[in-house]
Amino acid sequence: MKCTKVTRRLPALLAGELRAEEVLELKRHLTLCPGCRAARAALEADSRLLGELAAPEPGPWFTGRVMAEVRAASRRSGRPAWVRALAGTGLAVLVAAGVWAGTTFGGDLFGGGTAADPLAVNNEPSLTEYLELAAGSGR
Amino acid sequence: MTGPADDRELVRAAQAGGLSAFEELVRRHQRPLFGYLYRMCGNPAEAEELAQQAFVRAWGGIGRFRGEASFKTWLYRIATNLCINRATRRKPTVELPESLPAPEASEPAESYARARRVAAVRAALEQLPADQRAALVLVEYEEMSYREAARALRRSVRAVDSLIFRARQNLRRLLEPARRKGIV
């Protein structure tokens, strides 16, 4: 086995990821090759260095904070099915009532809107008028 | 007498809406997950925020968790995605060992030397590309097998093997200046 192949496999050897026969082959090479032994020793030294970087503990309120977020997320998305159904029905009823009122009373129901532009309210210019004004000011 | 529930039982209970089962999963996994994220991003406040987000996302997606991998691997996958997404948005803040303040007169020489070694390791880790760092931290610190790390990273085992090899090479190169100065 060539040294380049051995050094390529050394991290996997240290991690215990190689098959038994490959381990034997590498070990045989390592007994004969001081360069590859030095490479293995360097990797082991790096592992010891990595081991010095200890992680602190999460704060004492961590679990509580996570669970508060989880409960809030549950409340937002996990309402009972009958509530979701009722909410959906309510929205449909509102839309239907709006369409009926619009066709029955025309644009005056919402105070100054026109049939041409239902987004217009009160005395504000309609969307069409805004666009015309904007186009006019750009000229 | 029944022993403590394993993760699969807790996941099933959580999938049925059991908040206390999910809380038990949080308690079991918060410490290692926090450690993983701390070593990934080098900042305890950021690690805590990311760990919290990972658990909240896990709760949001637990209904879709099918158990092909372990809960731990699935959780680490969520956390890794969050961490890598954030890493691409910010520059690393590397604290070099040289920037450590001089030791206090009362501080033992060995503890100062150790603080410098740890700073050098943290700086080197933080300069690794995020995917190499993730693979190295999962295998070295979390003691995952290459197969588990591959699942957590959504990569092949061969890709993890390659990431670890390159991470090791880069780590050696990044630690070289500290080695020359006798810090590590």
UniProtKB/TrEMBL annotation, chain A:
<protein>
    <recommendedName>
        <fullName>Putative zinc-finger domain-containing protein</fullName>
    </recommendedName>
</protein>
<feature type="domain" description="Putative zinc-finger">
    <location>
        <begin position="3"/>
        <end position="37"/>
    </location>
</feature>
<keyword id="KW-0812">Transmembrane</keyword>
<dbReference type="InterPro" id="IPR041916">
    <property type="entry name" value="Anti_sigma_zinc_sf"/>
</dbReference>
<dbReference type="Pfam" id="PF13490">
    <property type="entry name" value="zf-HC2"/>
</dbReference>
<dbReference type="InterPro" id="IPR027383">
    <property type="entry name" value="Znf_put"/>
</dbReference>
<keyword id="KW-1133">Transmembrane helix</keyword>
<keyword id="KW-0472">Membrane</keyword>
<feature type="transmembrane region" description="Helical">
    <location>
        <begin position="81"/>
        <end position="101"/>
    </location>
</feature>
Automatic annotation (TrEMBL), chain B:
<dbReference type="GO" id="GO:0006352">
    <property type="term" value="P:DNA-templated transcription initiation"/>
</dbReference>
<dbReference type="InterPro" id="IPR013324">
    <property type="entry name" value="RNA_pol_sigma_r3/r4-like"/>
</dbReference>
<dbReference type="InterPro" id="IPR013325">
    <property type="entry name" value="RNA_pol_sigma_r2"/>
</dbReference>
<dbReference type="InterPro" id="IPR007627">
    <property type="entry name" value="RNA_pol_sigma70_r2"/>
</dbReference>
<dbReference type="Pfam" id="PF04542">
    <property type="entry name" value="Sigma70_r2"/>
</dbReference>
<comment type="similarity">
    <text>Belongs to the sigma-70 factor family. ECF subfamily.</text>
</comment>
<feature type="domain" description="RNA polymerase sigma-70 region 2">
    <location>
        <begin position="25"/>
        <end position="91"/>
    </location>
</feature>
<feature type="domain" description="RNA polymerase sigma factor 70 region 4 type 2">
    <location>
        <begin position="120"/>
        <end position="171"/>
    </location>
</feature>
<dbReference type="InterPro" id="IPR000838">
    <property type="entry name" value="RNA_pol_sigma70_ECF_CS"/>
</dbReference>
<dbReference type="InterPro" id="IPR014284">
    <property type="entry name" value="RNA_pol_sigma-70_dom"/>
</dbReference>
<dbReference type="InterPro" id="IPR013249">
    <property type="entry name" value="RNA_pol_sigma70_r4_t2"/>
</dbReference>
<keyword id="KW-0238">DNA-binding</keyword>
<dbReference type="InterPro" id="IPR039425">
    <property type="entry name" value="RNA_pol_sigma-70-like"/>
</dbReference>
<dbReference type="Pfam" id="PF08281">
    <property type="entry name" value="Sigma70_r4_2"/>
</dbReference>
<protein>
    <recommendedName>
        <fullName>RNA polymerase sigma factor</fullName>
    </recommendedName>
</protein>
<dbReference type="GO" id="GO:0016987">
    <property type="term" value="F:sigma factor activity"/>
</dbReference>
<keyword id="KW-0731">Sigma factor</keyword>
<dbReference type="InterPro" id="IPR036388">
    <property type="entry name" value="WH-like_DNA-bd_sf"/>
</dbReference>
<keyword id="KW-0805">Transcription regulation</keyword>
<dbReference type="GO" id="GO:0003677">
    <property type="term" value="F:DNA binding"/>
</dbReference>
<keyword id="KW-0804">Transcription</keyword>
